[in-house]
């Protein structure tokens, strides 16, 4: 069944349902996430065996090959590992795609124009699909959408594009559409991180929030403080700084920003393996010692190194779940707090604000978990973005205070909550109870979080997908085009999940809790 | 900790753990599966940044690129996704660490450099025949002016195993950001214990995309498994194109959950380039409900849809057509004809043609035997040797073609009966080697001995090997690899390594297997932790090596 949006397209859809065959009803509007505006016809086009990328009229020179590589990836994804029949005779041959990009710049800035138009004509010789976008990154989204229009025909053994002509205009609802991964609780090998990045682009997510370090391990190399990664789990479970550069570059070439997190002052036990003076004491190992200037020097060194690697506008400074008892039970620190007329929550505030200043000095805007806002919101730097996680209803308070916000309420958007269903992911609305347009703009978007306590290479993709895709549509598609009842999108999401499988991504069945195995034999489309 | 064999190597190990740093202990002797014979020294070599493949004195021309591609894959795997120093000629961040790197440069240059690997293959032939010589010899010197690792093998497929072993000896040095090999000089002589080391996948209960099947093949080569048993069709769906009977794949789940015959050929080619044979199964006469969607007359009736209609010549014509098409694609010596779980006694079925069986003076089980033997003859006429599930042997073993290989699955103790009857056997007893049995831990996979109670050397030779089975009722793309690995690897060592080198207690290999599981993860394979219940997620945060 096609998913049909309003009465206009409903008539359209019914008409087509009668006129056209099985393939259109199954293939018609199976795009995920649903674009802002879609019109389509009834004609089937056939791929040329030699699909061409053209850039007639484009201002983008593609000197770094981003576009060319993206085109080749898309062609391979569409072929889905099938062998394509070399010769066939038909007049409606799609010769290729012409991509016009207005901007010559390929820097992936935050809030960049990601819009695109995609036209697939039904007539003309030769026939070219036409993509127009302000930036190369809009064009990448257009290619992903294009890939979802094409199908391998198992009878003729050629690739077909159904329901031409197509006119699609599309742009994201929110500029921040994130996924968190956690490489401290379990190390994730570089190829695994890259495969997560690949899969993000299929649902147009654009921020990989890399929670690199936590209590359990410190896997990344910090050249300024080379003993920090002594806190890694093992010799091999580490990332060199060049690995990090490679990951960032890999992500950016696919339109994905990498947000590095260095969570302070809590969640830092692993730091002291290399520099034990960062621990309040040997027996009480976090939060970082607020009384020790060295704590801030190390943060400065980390952020200095990060600023050369992680070029994203933001850095995440954590600030969540800070248990300050080690500060009060360690006499040295207790005394320092007294001398500075601070209680422990003053110390927490002092630490967070000072870390913010360090980040600002390195040119970063700051993201902090919501506890910083809940405890001393009015003291935060105005460039702070507050990252909600504890529950619903936080964003409205944050934006009422004039700060920006990212939504990740754990009851709906924590992927490690296996009892959180895709329906809950789909219906979680970041702008709930926010009506003032100026305040709405302060909600940058949202993020689904794949915390790693029970996640490693073996189960990460299965736990992320398809639930993250449900949130991805919420963050991309215009509000008025989102289904009120997730039941209305179930067959389209099932179709997208099968597409992920086809592309080798271990997306789990929709039925059941997070990452459940299929309960019975059956078609992918029904599970 | 190393897994060390014998008191001498134990002392050796203690010595080294003092002298050398952590990575030697992790990497020294962690090859999986354990080769037939290994001896190693204590020197570290640095792999040249232009580490090259040479084929001096090789008779194998590699016109199809099997060896060259395998070498490139190996180099890629050894990097484990890391950036080598030479991958980063200039970057801002490196300026700040230049001093540090310079120091390590000195260290790096002080190590002997391994310039490449020379692979000499005796046979120019690259046909992957069953029982082919898979042995190899690998030597890594530690002295000489230009150091080259040396591989000698009878066939290119032995050389592929050598490259896999070599890849497990190398590691990325996080300080120098270069590749190293520890424990030189190294001498390894290796060959498999059994010629048949299989893994079954099932694309009928759930369709597996071609990309997923290819990734399963990749992962098989890491533990030197060499037969992919493709249970293509079953009651639930008929996903493959059969050009001779083009309506058969109407029994597919959906339009897209299908394989063209070209897809099948591509999968076979992909596998063979990695030394993996593809065994196609066409299970008859049971497990065939999906056949009738294209050709209804194959069903006994609309209400009773399997086994195939024994009274209908068309059933045999279609098997002939399938095997004719298969023979062009599946070049392996064997085809699997199933023959398991045939239920003949469903009421309407009996009523329908019990009379016809009667006309031919057959009982129900005579009909079953008649069907299986006739299918065998069709397969033989297409040049195949036959594999059948053990029910055929249990019911009428005396009548089976002597070319039959009996595929055990119901339980233990079957192989000894099969080989006593002079037939060949493959072991897959479900209580130990069925991967869909989530309650079977890796230790049981490891300890399952195919030659149990078989002492006569001639009979032993009739056990071709074994196979772990990943039945697909609850398996799809989302969980197949984590359900297969690491348990399949435990069986792979049982099938590869000489019996006398296999410890009685699987505990002794736990750490080496954990290391191999981490290696699979590093290569992007979703191998599950060892310490939980089959494919469970990790219970707690921690290092891969401890889970």
Helices and strands in order:
The complex is a heterodimer of chains A (527) and B (547).
Chain A (H helix, E strand, L loop, with lengths): L6 H13 L2 H6 L9 E18 L11 H14 L13 E9 L14 E5 L6 E7 L2 H12 L2 E3 L6 E12 L5 E7 L7 H13 L4 E5 L29 H12 L4 E5 L31 H17 L4 E3 L8 H5 L1 H9 L4 H18 L3 E5 H7 L7 E4 L6 H7 L3 E4 L2 H4 L8 H6 L9 H6 E8 L9 H5 L2 H10 L13 H13 L25
Parallel strand pairs in A: 1-2, 2-4, 7-8, 7-14, 8-9, 10-11, 11-12, 12-13, 13-14
Antiparallel strand pairs in A: 1-6, 3-4, 3-6, 5-6
Chain B lengths: L5 H14 L2 H6 L9 E18 L11 H14 L12 H19 L2 E9 L14 E5 L6 E7 L2 H14 E4 L4 E13 L5 E7 L7 H13 L4 E5 L29 H12 L4 E5 L31 H17 L4 E3 L10 H13 L4 H18 L3 E5 H7 L8 E3 L6 H7 L3 E4 L2 H4 L8 H6 L9 H6 E8 L9 H5 L2 H10 L13 H13 L25
Parallel strand pairs in B: 1-2, 2-4, 7-8, 7-14, 8-9, 10-11, 11-12, 12-13, 13-14
Antiparallel strand pairs in B: 1-6, 3-4, 3-6, 5-6
Helix pairs in contact in B: 3-5, 6-7, 8-10
Q: Residue-averaged pLDDT of chain A, rounded? A: 92
Q: Residue-averaged pLDDT of chain B, rounded? A: 89
- Could you name the CATH class of the largest domain in chain B? Alpha Beta
Any idea of the CATH topology of the largest domain in chain B?
TIM Barrel
Query: How can the largest sheet of chain A be summarized?
Result: 8 strands, parallel
Give me the count of strands of chain B: 14
Helical segment count of chain B: 18
- Major beta-sheet overview of chain B: 8 strands, parallel
Question: Which of globular, elongated, flat, extended, rod-shaped describes the shape of chain B?
Answer: elongated
Distance between the termini of chain B: 15 Å
Helix content of chain A: 25-40%
Rg of chain A, alpha carbons? 25 Å
Number of discrete helical segments of chain A: 18
N- to C-terminal distance of chain A: 15 Å
Task: Specify the CATH architecture of the largest domain in chain B.
Answer: Alpha-Beta Barrel
- What class would the helix/strand composition of chain B place it in? alpha/beta
Percentage of residues in DSSP E strands of chain B: 15-25%
């Amino acid at each position: 069944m096609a998913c049909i949006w309003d009465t206009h397209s409903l008539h359209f859809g019914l008409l087509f349902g009668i006129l056209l065959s099985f393939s259109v009803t199954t293939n018609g509007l199976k795009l995920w996430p649903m674009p802002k505006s879609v019109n389509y016809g009834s004609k089937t086009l056939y791929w040329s065996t030699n699909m061409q990328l053209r850039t007639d009229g484009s201002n983008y020179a593609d000197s770094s090959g981003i576009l060319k590589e993206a085109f080749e990836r898309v062609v391979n994804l569409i072929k889905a590992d099938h062998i394509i029949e070399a010769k066939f005779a038909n007049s409606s041959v799609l010769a290729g795609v012409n991509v016009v990009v207005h901007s010559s710049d390929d820097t992936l800035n935050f809030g960049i124009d990601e819009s695109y138009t995609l036209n697939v004509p039904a007539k003309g010789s030769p026939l070219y699909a036409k993509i127009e976008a302000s930036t190369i990154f809009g064009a990448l989204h257009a290619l992903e959408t294009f890939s979802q229009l094409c199908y391998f025909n198992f009878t003729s053994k050629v690739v077909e594009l159904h329901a031409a002509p197509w006119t699609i205009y599309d742009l994201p609802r929110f500029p921040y559409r994130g996924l968190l991964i956690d490489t401290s609780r379990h190390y994730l090998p570089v190829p695994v991180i890259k495969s997560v990045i690949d899969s993000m682009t299929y649902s147009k997510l654009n921020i990989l929030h890399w929670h690199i370090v936590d209590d359990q391990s410190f896997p990344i190399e910090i050249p300024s403080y080379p003993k920090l990664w002594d806190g890694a789990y093992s010799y091999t479970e580490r990332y060199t700084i060049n690995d990090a550069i490679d990951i960032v570059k890999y992500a950016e070439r696919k339109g994905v920003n990498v947000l590095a997190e260095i969570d302070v002052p809590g969640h830092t036990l692993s730091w002291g393996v290399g520099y034990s003076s960062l621990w309040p004491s040997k027996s009480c190992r976090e939060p970082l010692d607020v009384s020790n200037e060295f704590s801030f020097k190390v943060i400065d060194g980390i952020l200095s190194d990060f600023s050369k690697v992680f070029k994203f506008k933001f850095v995440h400074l954590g600030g969540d779940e800070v248990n300050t008892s080690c500060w009060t039970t360690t006499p040295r620190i207790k005394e320092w707090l007294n001398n500075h007329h601070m209680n422990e929550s003053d110390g927490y505030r002092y630490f967070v604000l000072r870390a913010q200043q360090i980040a600002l000095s390195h040119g970063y805007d700051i993201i902090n978990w919501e506890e910083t806002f809940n405890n001393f919101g009015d003291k935060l730097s105005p460039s702070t973005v507050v990252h909600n996680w504890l529950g619903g209803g936080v964003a409205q308070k944050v934006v009422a205070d004039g700060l920006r916000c990212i939504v990740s309420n754990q009851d709906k958007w924590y992927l490690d909550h296996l009892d959180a269903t895709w329906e809950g992911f789909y219906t979680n609305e970041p702008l709930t109870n926010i009506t003032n347009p100026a305040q709405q703009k302060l909600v940058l978007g949202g993020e689904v979080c794949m915390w790693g306590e029970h996640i490693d290479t073996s189960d990460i993709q299965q736990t992320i997908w398809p639930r993250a895709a449900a949130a991805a549509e919420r963050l991309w598609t215009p509000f008025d085009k989102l289904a009120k009842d997730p039941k209305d999108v179930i067959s389209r999401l099932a179709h997208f999940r099968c597409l992920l499988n086809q592309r080798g991504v271990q997306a789990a069945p929709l039925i059941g809790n997070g990452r459940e195995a299929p309960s019975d034999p059956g078609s992918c489309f029904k599970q | 900790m190393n897994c060390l064999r014998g008191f001498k190597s134990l002392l050796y190990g203690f010595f080294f753990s003092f002298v050398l740093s952590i990575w030697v202990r992790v990497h020294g002797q962690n090859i999986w599966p354990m080769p037939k014979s290994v001896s190693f020294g204590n020197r570290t070599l640095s792999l040249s940044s232009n580490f090259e493949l040479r084929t001096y004195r090789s008779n194998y021309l590699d016109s199809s690129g099997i060896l060259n591609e395998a070498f490139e894959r190996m180099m890629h795997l050894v990097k484990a996704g890391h950036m080598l120093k030479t991958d980063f000629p200039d970057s801002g961040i490196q300026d700040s660490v230049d001093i540090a790197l310079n120091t390590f440069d000195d260290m790096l240059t002080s190590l002997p450099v391994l310039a490449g690997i020379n692979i000499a293959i005796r046979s120019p032939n690259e046909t992957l025949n069953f029982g082919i010589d898979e042995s190899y010899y690998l030597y890594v010197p530690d002295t000489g002016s230009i150091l080259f690792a040396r591989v000698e093998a009878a066939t290119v497929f032995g050389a592929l195993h050598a490259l896999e072993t070599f890849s497990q000896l190398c590691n990325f040095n996080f300080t120098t950001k270069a590749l190293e090999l520890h424990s030189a000089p190294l001498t390894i002589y290796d060959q498999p214990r059994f010629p048949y080391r299989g893994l079954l996948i099932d694309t009928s209960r759930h369709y597996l995309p071609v990309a997923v099947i290819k990734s399963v093949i990749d992962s098989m080569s890491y533990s030197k498994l060499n037969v992919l048993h493709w249970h293509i069709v079953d009651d639930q769906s008929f996903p493959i194109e059969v050009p001779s009977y083009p309506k058969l794949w109407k029994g597919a789940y959906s339009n897209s959950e299908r394989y063209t015959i070209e897809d099948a050929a591509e999968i076979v080619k992909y596998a063979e380039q990695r030394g993996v044979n593809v065994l196609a199964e066409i299970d008859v006469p049971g497990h065939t409900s999906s056949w009738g969607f294209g050709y209804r007359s194959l069903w006994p009736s609309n209400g009773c849809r399997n086994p195939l209609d024994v009274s209908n010549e068309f059933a045999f014509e279609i098997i002939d057509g399938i095997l004719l098409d298969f023979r062009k694609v599946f070049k392996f010596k064997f085809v699997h004809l199933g023959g398991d779980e045939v239920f003949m006694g469903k009421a309407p079925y009996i009523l329908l043609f019990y009379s016809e069986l009667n006309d031919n003076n057959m009982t129900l089980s005579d009909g079953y035997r008649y069907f299986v033997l006739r299918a065998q003859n069709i397969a033989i006429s297409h040049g195949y040797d036959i594999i059948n599930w053990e029910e055929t042997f249990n019911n009428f073993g005396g009548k089976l073609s002597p070319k039959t290989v009996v595929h055990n699955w119901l339980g233990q103790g079957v192989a000894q009966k099969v080989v006593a009857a002079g037939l060949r056997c493959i072991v897959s007893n479900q209580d130990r080697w069925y991967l869909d049995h989530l309650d079977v831990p890796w230790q049981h996979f490891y300890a399952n001995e195919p030659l149990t109670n078989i002492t006569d050397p001639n009979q032993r030779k009739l056990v071709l090997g074994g196979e772990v089975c990943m039945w697909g009722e609850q398996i799809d793309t989302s969980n197949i690899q984590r359900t297969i690995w690491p348990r399949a690897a435990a069986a792979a060592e049982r099938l590869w390594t000489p019996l006398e080198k296999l410890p009685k207690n699987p505990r002794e290999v736990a750490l080496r297997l954990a290391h191999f599981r981490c290696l699979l993860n590093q290569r992007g394979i979703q191998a599950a932790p060892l310490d939980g219940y089959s494919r469970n997620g990790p219970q707690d945060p921690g290092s891969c090596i401890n889970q």
